[in-house]
Protein 1
Amino acid sequence: MATASPKVITPVEEARRFMVDCLKAVGMPEGNAVIIADNLLEADKRGLFSHGMNRLERYINDLKQGSADGSATPVVAQESTSAVVVDGRNAMGSIVGTFCMDLAVKKAKETGIAIAVAFNSNHFGISGIYAKQAIKQGCLGLIFTNTSPIMVPTRAKQPALGTNPLAMGAPGNGDEFVLDIATTAVAIGKIEYYKRKNEKLPEGWALNEEGEVETDPEIALKSGRLMPLGGTELNSGYKGFGLGMLVEILSGLLPGSNYGLLIPKWGASTEIRNLGHCFIAIDPMHFVPGFQDRMTDLMEMMRNLEPIDPERPVLVPGDVERENEERVRKEGGICYIQNQHDTNAKLAQELGVQPMGSIAARPLIDDCKCKEKKKK
Amino acid sequence: MATASPKVITPVEEARRFMVDCLKAVGMPEGNAVIIADNLLEADKRGLFSHGMNRLERYINDLKQGSADGSATPVVAQESTSAVVVDGRNAMGSIVGTFCMDLAVKKAKETGIAIAVAFNSNHFGISGIYAKQAIKQGCLGLIFTNTSPIMVPTRAKQPALGTNPLAMGAPGNGDEFVLDIATTAVAIGKIEYYKRKNEKLPEGWALNEEGEVETDPEIALKSGRLMPLGGTELNSGYKGFGLGMLVEILSGLLPGSNYGLLIPKWGASTEIRNLGHCFIAIDPMHFVPGFQDRMTDLMEMMRNLEPIDPERPVLVPGDVERENEERVRKEGGICYIQNQHDTNAKLAQELGVQPMGSIAARPLIDDCKCKEKKKK
């Protein structure tokens, strides 16, 4: 019988060390490995575990198969005053993403707004990290990326667009707005969670192979058909589909990467995926003074609205993730689930790197949400 | 008893003449009046009647009360290489919008991407018209505007953001993508339509004054509380709320116009509304060649997907509106509902302008959707 055991915390530095070692073991230069590890850590710190260390194994597979090039660095293929096209050269997505947002911010500081689009790229992790990259430079950032088909367009039977996330970051005064959403109603991870809970799905999340709304999570997972934000056509799902196309146009069509049905499934083959991204930076210094004050004011205006349930205050995009970051700081590290520790142990052995160490949680912590099962 | 009568069609030229005459009668210069009339006509031609001539009476009220200035023209308040801030000088929104998109396109042709934001503006009609303005110049256009509070943020009890629409246009080959959506689940007009049909609302459209999901259209209309795209928090309504904030940030915070709760209700007072807009233009000539081909290919890829119901093919944003435009061309004019003709007759009398003339529909037409009641 599994009983609760003391919480296990992995210091951020140790999680980074482990990921960097794994990536180096499959031939990635240290500089690139640190960028990838920091990208995945950022997701874990923000509580978005599905996009954090959870992805390390997949990244390592891509590198081993040669479907992504761990040593590659992107280059500028075409350049205008406020626009850049970047050839990702099949580098890891986060290397391409960081490079592009940096270029967009530099140009936006000169001209007010700038855009960098990339082709020949790979999965770039959470979009929010690039939003934060822009915020750190005092800019607004808009981020778009295409992904392999999983969203079923309104009225269609089959998936033809990806989860196609869009993100926006904007700086306030000691505060920030970070929106990072898939244009599907939910991500696959949420359906997996309902399966674990053995609960029916709400209507509007997924379809079965006949194109009917499906509430059985097991059937939904097998069919692999997510509905666009909004759900059914009656509930304006065509708007979510439209937003998915908007993302595809900016991230896939402008840079001339693969798009829609042309994008191969991730991990299914050694085929190069040729994903596209789009990064737009806007420097508020080129607009009416006081942007950051207004940003803070708008966020406070929303947070201070009377909530329906006094226990559940109104949150603005980024608030939940910031609370998670705060917990990681207080607890001195990240609380990974046992499943992640098991995967890491296997990776460490396979790659011949030092296993990831952890510490027992400090006595002050009582709100760590992750349940660790007793090791036998 | 009302029985079906022959369909009544108003030639586009006559509808324009009538609107221009009405606007001139309240002191608007002819040049401005033509821009406003064309904006409203564009909505009617695309079948978006709520945003067409239906708005003329409200515009005339604004002008009579002096809450908007029919003679004003906007000016550039601040300018950078790829960014402009426009002072709308309380002009009619469509005058400001047309001016801004024109500036954004001109700059984008030079630099790849450009942004024009406006403060001190008014309601600007359908966003799609500015998307089409960009398309005509071979550019992509992104359009954002704030509006008076009517959307209830997730978990809140009261409205704090407007319907905050976003639009995007992109040129294909003899084809175009025009997305134009409110970030609320639906617009108020749809709830009015359900009231007329005497049908319950689907869950996820509106709230009552207690903040509960409301399915009675009458109560929903009285409460004036729309839910964000997605609906409830469980169905990802927080994404729609986040998109509403994204629109508010770009259109309200960058230009320093009113925002959120600061925006007065439309028509409720003579108070100046000081709305804000944001227009982004992107010139595909600064990116990888062949954008228009890829755009057409992506749209065809979607339209050719196997539909769940063979009678209901997959549509891309803009297809329905283009079909409506086609019908107007075939029928030689616009088929307004009797209610609109009644309002026009009243306006003509009040303003002393020649009433709007109409013609009986040509015999070839049998698919005009609007039902005309027999005049007594």
Note: Chain A touches chain B through 83 residues (CB under 8 Å).
Protein 2
Amino acid sequence: MIEYYDISGCYIVRPWAMSIWEIMQTFFDAEIKQMKIKNCYFPLFVSSGVLQKEKDHIEGFAPEVAWVTKSGESELEMPIAIRPTSETIMHPYFSKWIRGHRDLPLRLNQWCNIVRWEFSNPTPFIRSREILWQEGHTAFATKEEADTEVLEILELYRRIYEEFLAVPVIKGKKSEHEKFAGGLYTTTVEAFVPNTGRGVQGATSHCLGQNFAKMFEINFENEKGEKTIGVMVMVHGDDKGLVLPPKVASVQVIVIPVPYKGADMQGIFDACAATVKSLNEVGIRAEADLRENYSPGWKYSHWEMKGVPLRIEIGPKDFANNQVRAVRRDNAVKIDIPMADMVEKVKDMLDNIQQSLFDGAKQKRDACIQVVHTWEEFVEALGQKKMILAPWCDDEEVEKDVKARTKGDIGAAKSLCSPFNQPELPEGTLCFASGKPAKTWTYWGRSY
Amino acid sequence: MIEYYDISGCYIVRPWAMSIWEIMQTFFDAEIKQMKIKNCYFPLFVSSGVLQKEKDHIEGFAPEVAWVTKSGESELEMPIAIRPTSETIMHPYFSKWIRGHRDLPLRLNQWCNIVRWEFSNPTPFIRSREILWQEGHTAFATKEEADTEVLEILELYRRIYEEFLAVPVIKGKKSEHEKFAGGLYTTTVEAFVPNTGRGVQGATSHCLGQNFAKMFEINFENEKGEKTIGVMVMVHGDDKGLVLPPKVASVQVIVIPVPYKGADMQGIFDACAATVKSLNEVGIRAEADLRENYSPGWKYSHWEMKGVPLRIEIGPKDFANNQVRAVRRDNAVKIDIPMADMVEKVKDMLDNIQQSLFDGAKQKRDACIQVVHTWEEFVEALGQKKMILAPWCDDEEVEKDVKARTKGDIGAAKSLCSPFNQPELPEGTLCFASGKPAKTWTYWGRSY
């Protein structure tokens, strides 16, 4: 998927990972175009004057900004920053282009790279210094339109996680402490990695409110595009390697001939090619691995490691019986399929794999959710690496206090989101942390 | 199309230009995937050690390299360069990944931004400091395979220019002096801008030869992606603004209602919407401009300036006669079309506009081609801003000499390419510049 690079915190995205990114990109791009959001491209560079204009906003990024100070042998007159995000780059042009209500709504998006020179230990996919992502910036005449679009975009992000990556997420609202600085409110899809017991902020869609006179703005970004792939890897991977959901696998079906002494190898090879052709014709991404210098066993391990959802083997017995053997990557179940039903059966199996990866992940995630009511229960659940659902007073100071009290080597607990889908909150329920009256159920945990 | 930005040499690519880039990208990307070239993404950054490894290669870029020396407030231990191109970044990994012939061919491509901090005056689309482009890097076991792929890619570039942008190009080979430094040979598609009398190197496909033991490499890049759009603008634009070839226009047909006192405006608006719907259904990118606060005349100018290939007007008379009026952007021809034939006729007109833009551009370009045999004829033709075809001895020293002798305020003449399609070269023909025996016909001119 990735290759380490000689500059720390930078990684090479190899084709296997890139194709996953492209599949998500194709889906999201088509959907936002339907919503009349148009793509554009703003520069990589931002002058220090512009960058520092929005003080609140830039404070968080300042320590991580990479500065260009030289070109060739010459010092630049003024250092120039590489974008850590593009709000400060784009907003001045929004003001310029929007003269009045008839220029609204303005809906722009860009696919680009951003740079955040983090010093905490970089991790491929999860924390890298150069990030491929998408950032949308739109402006409306009314708050109602802005609110609607915030949720429409959030739904697209949910679909990317749940329908494509088979990773269950919880939709909700960020706390005041965790929201986009300077914005009105932030919505999020939150994933959870059971193995490590950590939450992941999947993607966020923000309502910025009226930053400029008479114009409601929203922003949305798939919080570090490559991170999305990292979450999928962590949620579905196993000892043998990756497990790719069929919808994002660039090879959904790998067809492998199984040679046998004295067998009709040409016949078997032809059957493999014909199988690939039939599958391709209905839009299934299938390939045959006909290389002669690798054994079937080597090929099995190779494609298992790469996470291909379904393997089809064709050996002399299959060939003689006019059937193929199909082996699922996710649960190792093997079945023999008559050639006549092959395409239909493979289609069903792929749908089934997609669904069962999601169901399995949801089951595991749900098993990690722990409802707590008291600080003691909270601390215990945190120790057990749970995703904690707790009644909360929604007070920013209390959240800061929770962070301070749980600070440790593996990071502090923080609020993940208040789910839109709220359980009942009986009158008189108290906040797990402050003992004050609770206002909302909120998820808490350690997070990437 | 673009907006100036507060950092000199950087531009904002607005949606109208971005969509042209995306259309070309979609075409090229699908075609190279058919050729089994896979997309990947290498880092934006390169360490100075790696950058300087290929001395010959980097010499040309060194003065234009942007250097990151600081992150936040800290000086980096070693300055890090922003890629001016990715050969030095990618080649070490090719060596690592290719262990033997069974790992070949390796075919990678990336869509990315590169930075060249040029100091000559920046020009939108033609010379900018950050460039969006595509760069392909592939490796083969044999030179024959490499040669074949060089030409297959060059043909794709020709199609982008001729079939999409309606800009005629000449396919050929670069001289030793102009080829990719360190490579075996460079092929190119060369465009020409009649108004300014300058050639444009459209895109290049290089055979690098055996850089590493037993492996033949090729590179290809659409020489500064955005430049491609700039050439199209210069070739087709007129006094009223852009003229977009239908194939790259994000809006191919703009439908405009023409209100008239007492007319059935609702009926006309509905007819506009119905027209757009019928066109969209057959895949034509049509939109209606139903804004009430702009006059039809304002809308005509607006969409003419934006270069939309075909305008459809629907006024009371058209509505009563169940017809529309279609007006071509390229030649202002107006025709009335009965609603019953509308979709078919519009399709034909768009094809016709595409073809006639190409034919017109080719005619103008051809009229600029001047065959010369002597230095005097050469100098005269250069003064007349011609694209010059001359018999040449193919000697690198002679080319340097031609450059030196034609150096002026507006740049020196250089060889553009030796066309694959060579005119007859009779025995005894002499080089226009050296008087030595000519070996090839070559195009010369000033170039962007």
Note: Chain B touches chain A through 53 residues (CB under 8 Å).
